[in-house]
Amino acid sequence: MKPPVGPETGTPAVSVCLQVLKKRADFVRASSARRQGTAGIHLQARKRPEGEASGIRVGFTCSKKVGNAVARNRAKRRLREVARIVLPELGRDGWDYVLVGRKDTTAALPFDTLLADMRRAMRKVHG
Predict the structure, then answer these.
(1) Are residues 19 and 93 in contact, defined by beta-carbon separation less than 8 angstroms?
(2) Which residues is 59 bridged to in the sheet?
(3) Long-range contacts, stretch 113-116, CB < 8 angstroms, 24+ apart
């Protein structure tokens, strides 16, 4: 059985190639680690201790400050797509990443700008 693929690129969907954070404790641990903010994304990243889990794990969050449910879901969809594109190339094995949506900007910025913000944040976190 083949994994599901993205609509146009033919690459695996984010849930297939990256593990998604679901537990609150994982989000809390990432919030106290390295952080990097850009205009469209706030990135939190932490290196996991040996033996905790393998691979790249990613979580997404948007508070009610981002807007109503429609706005939050749109922002999270955009964050998932950015993670699907950027994390396989710049993410490191053994790290957790949490992408936090920003009020009024995550859903409204042009997608190319959002990608550039994510790449810049990843370089700063690992640089």
Answers:
(1) no
(2) 98
(3) 113/39, 113/40, 114/40, 114/41, 114/78, 114/82, 115/82, 115/85, 115/86
Q: What is the DSSP letter of 12?
A: B
pTM value is 0.83
Question: From CA 42, how far away is CA 49, in angstroms rounded?
Answer: 23
- What are the backbone angles phi and psi of residue 7, rounded to the nearest 5°? -65, -45
Mind listing the domains of the chain with CATH numbers? 14-126 (3.30.230.10)
User: Which candidate, 113, 100, 91, 99, places its Cα nearest to that of 47?
Assistant: 91
The Cα–Cα gap between 31 and 70 comes to: 25
Instruction: Tell me how far apart the alpha carbons of residues 49 and 112 are, in angstroms, rounded to a whole number.
Output: 34
Sheet holding 95-101, edge to edge: 19-20, 57-61, 95-101, 41-47, 34-37
pLDDT of residue 35: 93
Query: Using one digit for the tens of pLDDT, what is the confidence trace for 95-108?
Result: 999 999 999 899 89
